[in-house]
Specification:
Layout lengths: L3 E6 L4 H13 L3 E4 L10 H13 L6 E5 L3 H7 L7 E3 L3 H9 L5 E5 L5 H13 L6 H9 L1
Parallel strand pairs: 1-2, 1-3, 3-5, 4-5
Helix pairs in contact: 1-5, 2-3, 4-5
């Protein structure tokens, strides 16, 4: 298990990000918080870029991003080379994003899901292994 993860959010995802940061720390993860650090209105793009750039550069194997719907953060993150950000709001999607797509950033909608589901999605995302094989060939064809 890679025990370092980077997490970031905008104001709409701040409350859930804080809960996830505490949850991940309690599970033994070293969590780098890329911000934001309050519920004051911010531009989500800034925080999406911080997390996606860190994953793209290989500083972190995995990251988590949150905004109100998760849509904006997904769009920002997927512009970075080597980033495969998956917006998930159900366990099947979180599982398959890892098994078949080797997603490296989990994106969550802070105004859409609650903390219990968020914890389950994070656990699923971080614990599910990539299957490789034919899926690796498909990922390589994206790049």
């Amino acid at each position: 298990m890679d025990t370092a993860i980077i997490i970031g959010s905008d104001h709409a995802g701040f409350e859930l990000k804080e809960k996830l940061r505490t949850y991940l720390s309690s599970k033994g993860y070293a969590v780098e918080d890329a911000g934001t650090f309050s519920e004051a209105s911010v531009n989500y793009v800034e925080y999406g870029k911080k997390v996606a750039a860190a994953v793209s550069a290989g500083r972190f194997a995995k990251g988590i991003l949150l905004c109100g719907s998760g849509l904006g953060m997904s769009m920002v993150a997927n512009r970075y080379a080597g980033v495969r950000a998956a917006l998930c709001s159900d366990l099947f999607s979180a599982t398959m994003s890892r098994r078949h797509n080797d997603a490296n950033i989990l994106v969550l909608g802070g105004r859409i899901i609650g903390e219990v589901l968020a914890f389950a999605l994070v656990d699923t995302f971080l614990e599910t292994q990539f299957e490789g094989g034919r899926h690796l060939d498909r990922i390589r064809s994206m790049d």
